TrEMBL record:
Name of this protein: M48 family metalloprotease
Pfam hit, one: Peptidase_M48
Annotated family: Belongs to the peptidase M48 family.
Organism of provenance: Hymenobacter taeanensis
The keyword Signal appears for this protein: yes
């Protein structure tokens, strides 16, 4: 459902001042958007992303894939309900499945719209790994990394125009490129860490799940670089950092049934 964007954005007279301020702002942790603006931008980008993949016949519709979405949403909900999200009740936190078995990736828009490629789900070995990757993407949205990176890449005034209904061509460009958005070292490290914190909070998943994905992907990359490994820090450092955080939290020995996860893979 598309949202009303009235009163969500700053007066345009202020936008140019904020755009200038952003140039000199710290690159990490500085966000000129309000939470309502995150939600508004995310709704626009998600609507366009849905349209792009639906036009290519790659968006798995919930009406005809109800069981697959029930299984995936079960994992998403456990991760979301970990007790450590800042915007658990504010963001919509919906999930869409994209049919592409060649892409091992997931991404989230500002405001918490999550996209998962079938290639990622089929690549993973167990539900812990899926929860770990989802935790990483949820962290990017909840820690507002996506908005901050888009501010740096496109500028405040352009994003403001999108939310106000302008710059439709740029909206298409943003939606098409969101899955390849390159986060900084600090953003990736923070998302990896929060993935362990989130999974620990579930009291269900082993919280080093994301490390299992990185280990397998690094071994099987065969000279190619999976999307999740295409950013710095290097995969070895990321694996070590995730495992260290999980050990400190004391949540590495949990085992969950993979029956639902295996069913999900079969359905895709």
């Amino acid at each position: 459902m598309r949202r009303s964007f009235l009163t969500l954005f700053l007066p345009l007279a202020v936008v140019s001042v904020l755009t200038t301020a952003a140039v000199n702002a710290p690159r990490q942790g500085f966000n000129l958007f309000s939470i309502n603006q995150d939600i508004a931008l995310g709704a626009q980008v998600a609507h366009q992303t849905d349209s792009l993949y639906r036009a290519k016949g790659q968006l798995l519709e919930k009406s005809s894939n109800a069981r697959a979405y029930t299984l995936l949403n079960g994992v998403v909900k456990r991760v979301l309900d970990n007790g450590n999200l800042k915007y658990r009740t504010q963001f919509p936190w919906d999930v869409q499945i994209i049919k592409d078995d060649q892409i091992q990736n997931a991404f989230a828009t500002p405001g918490g719209h999550i996209y998962v490629f079938t290639g990622l789900i089929k690549f993973l070995d167990n539900e812990n790994q899926l929860a770990g990757v989802l935790g990483h993407e949820i962290a990017h949205a909840d820690r507002r990394h996506s908005t901050q990176m888009l501010q740096q890449q496109y500028g405040i005034s352009l994003l403001a125009g999108i939310v106000l209904g302008n710059n439709s061509n740029q909206l298409v460009q943003i939606a098409a490129g969101l899955g390849q958005l390159k986060f900084s070292r600090s953003y990736e490290t923070e998302a990896d860490k929060y993935s362990t914190i989130y999974l620990n909070g579930t009291r269900y998943y082993a919280c080093d799940g994301a490390a299992g994905f990185f280990i397998k992907a690094e071994k099987q990359s065969g000279g190619g670089t999976p999307e999740f490994l295409s950013t710095h820090p290097n995969p070895g450092s990321r694996i070590a950092n995730i495992q260290k955080s999980a050990q400190q939290l004391g949540c590495t020995n949990r085992n969950v049934s993979n029956a639902n996860f295996e069913e999900l893979k079969r359905l895709l």
